[in-house]
């Protein structure tokens, strides 16, 4: 078995959509999945790509995905690496692909002078929590995640001043 991790390319768009869909199903949020191949091609590989993606390969077959982007820490005065998604197909779990993806992400963070990389995990996803604990990651219990989306986001945007300085 040959396990490798490589940068995603535009021809991976169908695989990426499949992995994201499988992840959404696993996370019980399939109804939130809106991305299609053209959206993935545009946002990951278009003129102004902000996110990046890695593909885990086993014997020339894509089996996993990591999507990440660089954020910024005002406290540290450095950019950091934020992992949006890490996913390995159910048939390939336990074979090292998740570890290889996380190690590749750590290498990218170190190579880009990022003092840390962050991600979130659903509180019920015990296999992922156990994996992150095993690699030495620490949960950030002092922070809460917030989100504005959909109509609430539009209402809030429309409720304020229209100045963009």
Automatic annotation (TrEMBL):
Entry annotated with the keyword Transferase: yes
Superkingdom: Bacteria
A UniProt-annotated Pfam family: Acetyltransf_1
Domain N-acetyltransferase: 3-158
PROSITE patterns in the record: GNAT (PS51186)
Family: Belongs to the acetyltransferase family.
Name of the protein in question: GNAT family N-acetyltransferase
Lineage: Bacteria, Pseudomonadati, Pseudomonadota, Gammaproteobacteria, Oceanospirillales
């Amino acid at each position: 078995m040959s396990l490798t991790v490589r940068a995603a390319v535009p021809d991976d768009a169908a695989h990426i959509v499949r992995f994201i869909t499988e992840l959404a199903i696993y996370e019980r949020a399939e109804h939130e999945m809106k991305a299609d191949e053209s959206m993935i091609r545009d946002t990951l590989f278009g003129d102004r790509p902000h996110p990046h993606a890695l593909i885990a390969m086993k014997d020339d077959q894509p089996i996993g995905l990591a999507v990440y982007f660089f954020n910024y820490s005002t406290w540290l005065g450095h950019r950091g690496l934020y992992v949006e998604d890490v996913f390995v197909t159910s048939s390939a779990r336990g074979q090292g692909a998740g570890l290889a993806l996380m190690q590749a992400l750590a290498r990218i963070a170190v190579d880009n002078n990022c003092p840390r990389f962050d991600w979130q995990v659903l509180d019920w996803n015990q296999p992922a929590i156990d994996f992150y604990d095993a690699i030495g990651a620490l949960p950030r219990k002092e922070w809460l995640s917030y989100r504005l989306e959909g109509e609430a986001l539009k209402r809030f945007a429309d409720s304020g001043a229209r100045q963009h300085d």
